[in-house]
Amino acid sequence: MKQLIFFAEFFQIFLLLSFMSGIFAEDCKQTGKGFAVVELFTSEGCSDCPKADKNLNELSKFETSKNIYPLAFHVTYWDYIGWKDSFGKQEFTDRQEKYNRYLRTGTYTPQAVVNGKLDIIGSKRSSLFSAIESELLNQNTINIELNANRKVNTLEIEYKVNCIKANQVLNIALVEKGLFTSVTRGENRGSKLSHENVVRSFNTTTLTKKTGKIKLEFPDLEKNITNFELISFVQDIDTFIILGASKSKLN
User: Fold this and answer.
1) Per-residue pLDDT tens for 115-128?
2) Quick one: which of 14, 113, 115, 134 has the fewest CB in 10 Å?
């Protein structure tokens, strides 16, 4: 009798796991489109970073035509040497440290991470662009759709993905374009730095269903909304590999 109960319970668990597997694996088909999410960890207080920022600015011109998604995460650990980066956030430093644990690269600037798995010195243009071209050959399996509306200092975002699996998160970054800083102290003293796709707000949501809503802080009510856009990407939390990406304008 106990054996019958055991096998009945085992069969129920098997059916449940099969059902959940079907939900998570549904519609996970290759789209034929490659992509490259380029996360640059940079700082206005770092003398090697302006060249990397220039590379990222160049990449921002190819976002639409080549499915390249550049993100400038300004870190905080160089603020002590004379210039405090106004775009720096501790959460971005923490994100880079997570990559350090996965990639075992050490924490440094300028560091570029492509699709969550390739570590490149961000100032080395040829190495960076070569890694990106290689990633563009890989097919995407996840499509992301966003619909965002600004309500005062908050963005209300509806998302939809075609496919989810266990242990995945949706990252959404609000990026700002066309920024300039005149640096008066520190290693870049006397320089006027140009920035594109600076991450101003960032949200990570665990994916348990294909649709949902989130809220994201909008940093400055005086800014023109046309200077901003959203870049979203799905990431495996066990490997940190990025599985799909998209971008969206604000309404």
Assistant:
1) 999 999 999 999 99
2) 14
State the Cα–Cα distance between residues 141 and 245, nearest whole angstrom. Answer: 10
Start-to-end CA distance of the chain, whole Å, equals 63
Looking at every residue in the chain, the average pLDDT score rounds to: 88
Q: For strands 68-74 and 36-42, give the pairing.
A: parallel
Among 203, 100, 189, 234, which Cα is nearest to 111's?
Answer: 100
For the four alpha carbons of 183, 187, 188 and 189, in that order, the dihedral sign comes to: positive
Q: 175-225, pLDDT tens digit by residue?
A: 999 999 999 999 999 999 999 999 999 999 999 999 999 999 998 767 888
SS3 97: helix
Residue type, 138: N
Tens of pLDDT, residue by residue over 42-84, are 999 999 999 999 999 999 998 767 899 999 999 999 999 999 9
Residues in Cβ contact with 10 at an 8 Å cutoff, skipping those fewer than 6 apart: none
Q: Could you give the 3-state DSSP secondary structure of residue 106?
A: coil
**Looking at beta carbons, which pairs linking 212-217 to residues 24 or more positions away fall under 8 Å?**
212/158, 212/159, 213/156, 213/157, 213/158, 213/159, 214/157, 214/159, 214/172, 215/154, 215/155, 215/156, 215/157, 216/148, 216/154, 216/155, 216/157, 216/172, 216/174, 217/153, 217/154, 217/155, 217/174
Whole-number Cα distances in Å, 177 to 40, 51, 181: 15, 17, 13
